From TrEMBL:
CDD domains per record: TlpA_like_family (cd02966)
Name of the protein: Thioredoxin family protein
Pfam families: Redoxin (PF08534)
InterPro entries tied to this protein: Redoxin (IPR013740), Thioredoxin-like_sf (IPR036249), Thioredoxin_domain (IPR013766), Thioredoxin_ResA/DsbE_sf (IPR050553)
GO molecular function, one term: oxidoreductase activity
Coiled-coil portions: none
Domain spans labelled Thioredoxin: 20-161
SUPFAM superfamilies listed in its UniProt record: Thioredoxin-like
Record PROSITE patterns: THIOREDOXIN_2
Length: 162
């Protein structure tokens, strides 16, 4: 009578433990870029794969991610990748000091009010959203660990090939 129960239990277990990647439109935003204060909007990047990273100068994993993001920018910018790193630091001076040291080649934006971070329902630092060429969020990744970089790069490559 209950012979189907083990298979059903395994199916139920998998359903609740596998990650889900619901594709949804990335909320548009307009923020000042750093250091020139030029306004950038996400909609301006339609047709490109966007690696949208929320970070702060006080966050060690955030700081650790910058050399890797620079490497990805240099490797894939001509294939259609744009990296936008959105700082949630309140003061521009904090960002300025960090940027002088790291000299990133990708776009830095500033969200001092945290409104864009709230729109994206940020829960951890750093948090990255991979956005496809159609403006859809296809992956969310929290934290930065060197053990995750191969998977992140493979996902970027896959999106660039679409």
């Amino acid at each position: 009578m209950f012979s189907h129960l083990p298979a059903f239990s395994v199916t139920l277990l998998l359903f609740f433990t596998l990650p889900t990647f619901a594709v949804e439109p990335a909320p548009d935003f307009t923020l000042p870029s750093f250091p020139d204060n030029r306004e950038i909007s996400l909609k301006d990047f339609k047709g490109r794969v966007v690696y949208l990273d929320f970070w702060a100068t006080w966050c060690p994993p955030c700081r650790k991610s910058f050399p890797w993001m620079d490497e990805m920018h240099e490797r894939y910018k001509d294939e259609g990748l744009s990296i936008i790193a959105v700082s949630v630091d309140k003061k521009r001076e904090q960002i300025e000091q960090f940027i002088k040291k790291t000299k990133p080649a990708f776009i830095i934006a500033h969200d001092p009010t945290g409104n864009v971070a709230k729109t994206y329902e940020l829960r951890a630092m750093p948090t990255t959203y991979l956005i496809d060429r159609n403006g859809q969020v296809v992956m969310t990744h929290m934290g930065f660990r060197s053990t995750d970089t191969d998977k992140l790069e493979a996902t970027i490559q896959s999106l660039l090939e679409e």
